[in-house]
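HUMAN: Can I see a protein plus its fold?

ASSISTANT:
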Amino acid sequence: MAPKRPRGAGAFPKAVETPAPVMPDPASLYAALDLGTNSCRMLIAQPKGSQFHVIDSFSKSVQLGYGLESSGRLGRGSMNRTIAALRICKQKLQRHKVGHMRLVATEACRRAKNGKQFINQIRRETGLRLEIISPEEEARLAVISCAPLVSTKTEQLLVVDIGGGSTELVWIDLTNVPHRERPGAIMRLHRGFVQDPGPFAAAKVVDWISVPLGVATLRDQFEDVEDDAARFALMSWFFEEQLSKFSPYTAEQTREGFQIVGTSGTVTTVAASHLGLKRYDRTKVDGLRMTSDQIDAVIRDYLTLGPDGRRNDPRIGRDRQALIMSGSAILQALMRIWPTDRLSVADRGLREGLLYAQMSADGVLEDTPF
C-alpha cells in the first residue's frame, strides 16, 4: 500500500516578507575624510549614545607624498591616484546624502609647493572642499579620538600619532583631574590645547610637537642605505634627534601612572604581529595594551625576517611591509626614551577625531564620562 501523501506536500511555502532595512536620516549623518601623505580615508557615521555607529567607510593607499622629499612637489601620478580615490568618496557621500562633513588634508599638502593648487584642483574635478589643517589641530584631533582608551589610573599621558608625513606627540598631565573624569577631560581638548574648561577639571597639555617625519618621509630619507639593520638604526636615532625641543624629552618618567596611546598603522601592525594574527581583527587590536619589552620583541623579529621575510609575512601585509620598518624605528625611539608597561593600541585617529569634534560641537553625543 502506497504511503499517503502528506497534506500540503508540494505546495509552495508561504512567502515571508523581509522588512526593508531602515535607512538612517541623512540629516543625522556625519562624514570625516583624512587625506594624508600615504592614504585617503573616510568614515560616514551617525551618533549613538556617547559614541558613533559607522555607516560606511573608505580607505585607499594613494601615496600622495611619493617623491615629495626630493622634489618638494606633489607628483602628477600621485595626484591622479588621489583624485580617483576622492571621486569614490564623493559617490559615497552623495549616495548617503550626508548632512554634515569635514574633509581635511595634512602634511603632504602642507609641505608641497603645489599643495594649495592641488586642493583647488580637487574642488574643480570632484566638487569636494578639502581644507589643509595645521599640525596643532591634527594633533588635537588625534588626541580626542583616543579619549575612550585613557585609563582612569593614568597620571601622565603621551598620545602619539605616527602618520605618513609627520608624527604628532602630545604630553598631557592629568594629576589634577578626578579619576573618573580623565577620559572626559581628554575629549574636551577638541576646543583647543589652551582653553577655559569652565566648571570641569582640566587636562593640562604640558607640551606638543609635530615632527615632519612619518613612515613615508623617514623611509625616503634613508632609502639609499642598503643594509637593513643599519638603515633601521639610523632612522631610529635620527627621529630621536628631532625630539630635543619637546620639553618632556629630558624628563625621567616612571612606569607607574604613565600611559602611551599609539595611533597609526605601524602600532596596529605591531600589535597584530604580537598577537600572531594572520588576518587583521580590529576587535582584538583596538585597546590592546603592550609593554616596551613586547614591542621590542616584535621589532627584533621584523629585523630577523629581513626585507623578503617581511614581504611574505601575513601578519604585516603587502600594503604595509614597505613602511613597517620606518614606523617601527619611530616607535622604538619612543620606547627607548619612555619605557612603559602600558602602550595602548588605538585603531582610530584623525577621522574619528573629526567625527567626535563635529558631533560634540553639535551636542548630539550623550553626556557620559567619555
Q: What stands out?
A: Confidence is low (pLDDT under 50) at residues 10-16.
